[in-house]
């Protein structure tokens, strides 16, 4: 792996004395210059390491980080430690934070740990957190400390598993949305969500981890954002997808707390993004939940009988995003709900009236870990339809901007936790995804951390990132005149325009045909 972003170089230097008056640090810089040019070193790094130099016998290992325009020394160690070259990659999600330790000599991921973002205690949705810190420095410091704690805890977990401590790592690459990176640096993100809807900054460049309170002497790099809703996590995922290198027209979809979409190829990239809401993490329902043990993650309705599976086969305690999508798709195909998402009473013994509204019982009291019926209500469905409509409309908006029809999309990259676990067939059935041949869909997993890993392995990708940022055309949904009309058209299953969903309508027709022939 010749072009890694962080290198460890072993040096055996001539000892000073006998008329050789070159300063210690200059001696190191001169040795590196032929291959690495004008290498930089900060005053902080000199202060941390200058006392060690005389004990080294002038045999030492230098840790270098490529900052795009120059290499910087971030650590000096006694002897030859070049066989131990480690770095971190992370996805700073608004709900979940994921971190990897990578061996840069082999490219192997040595460990991956994740946890729920500590910011969640200030609100499940990002807007609550933004309002919490507005014009309040104490609250802003509090949420910054929470953000840092995510990484400190994950570094500790990784060290427990691998024995490798943060001071053995030279660099740390982070993908996160625009608001998350503002919080990480202790910068108020109010204007991301309020006029003029522009972030305070898009780029952090490289900075020392200790500057913001991480127990880490190496350099931190956050993927730059393009706009308020189009964050570094999406730029990182775009890098991982390679769709900007291909001639085929591709769509990149990451639906989570926000919905972010990119459409393009190696000639152009257009994007749109906006709030999608917490629906996809099950946050719309009283018994909705994140994907963890006991969450209903898949639902099938076969011959009018509902069957569920749960994560870790635990007794059900609630339903997560992939389960909700399956449930709605199954109920639509089985005729338990109509195109508007409303229950059709009498279609199943599981459709009951509770507290003045219809609900579906997806797990009976005796099956559930909570010893109560687990339900998804009419109000839950209608809230979910808003999220589904938002995602559908963003895609329609981009397709219209190009003046094409959805069938011209040759590849669809589904990123993020939701895109990883959702059943593609169910997603198409309810109109969350366009009705395209199924082999065009790629479930790429966590695009944000994959892009961070790619950048660690190849420093040249720093230039690619800057090219992507300058070439993406960001279309503001606020200026889309017919956005609300499109939204209301998409608040049906799969859509008010049936011609957009031929395979789904075919399935519904064949079910109705079976029903009528059985009577």
From TrEMBL:
<feature type="domain" description="RACo-like middle region">
    <location>
        <begin position="87"/>
        <end position="245"/>
    </location>
</feature>
<dbReference type="InterPro" id="IPR052911">
    <property type="entry name" value="Corrinoid_activation_enz"/>
</dbReference>
<dbReference type="InterPro" id="IPR027980">
    <property type="entry name" value="RACo_C"/>
</dbReference>
<dbReference type="Pfam" id="PF17650">
    <property type="entry name" value="RACo_linker"/>
</dbReference>
<dbReference type="Pfam" id="PF17651">
    <property type="entry name" value="Raco_middle"/>
</dbReference>
<dbReference type="InterPro" id="IPR041414">
    <property type="entry name" value="Raco-like_middle"/>
</dbReference>
<feature type="domain" description="RACo linker region">
    <location>
        <begin position="6"/>
        <end position="82"/>
    </location>
</feature>
<dbReference type="InterPro" id="IPR042259">
    <property type="entry name" value="Raco-like_middle_sf"/>
</dbReference>
<feature type="domain" description="RACo C-terminal">
    <location>
        <begin position="248"/>
        <end position="504"/>
    </location>
</feature>
<dbReference type="InterPro" id="IPR040506">
    <property type="entry name" value="RACo_linker"/>
</dbReference>
<dbReference type="Pfam" id="PF14574">
    <property type="entry name" value="RACo_C_ter"/>
</dbReference>
<protein>
    <recommendedName>
        <fullName>Na(+)-translocating NADH-quinone reductase subunit F</fullName>
    </recommendedName>
</protein>
